[in-house]
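Hi R.,

Here's the chain you asked about this morning:
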Amino acid sequence: MLNKLKEDKINAMKEKNVVKKNILSTLIGEIELKNKSGNGELQIQEIYKIIKKMIDNNILTNNIDENQYIEHYLPSLLSDNELEKIINDFISENKLDGLKSLGLIMKYLNENYSGQFDGKKASLISKNILL
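And here is the predicted structure, written out as tokens:
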């Protein structure tokens, strides 16, 4: 993923797209900083978290236009039906019940489907199934 980002940054420079070059430079810098502070290369889920955080920050600072340059690096979101099926299957396989199981469900989703679901929606679906 990092190599793809660097390649896209070079293309943005060739296209003289300063905004795209800057946003990709920032994203690459964040990933490389995390790589240096951690042990080895980042997992793809960690890179997704960095991208998602950057998108959220752009929304908060009204730089929404910049998101068009980085959103496509995230995997597509699961539909409500797909998310509900995944949660149902996990609950059934692990014989979970009660809201105390919510943390286990969210942990499972984050480990296996990071960046592919809305946390609030997943929590709501999980609560509806568990209750």
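One quick note: The helical segments are 2-14, 18-37, 44-60, 80-94, 102-113, 119-130.

Cheers,
M.
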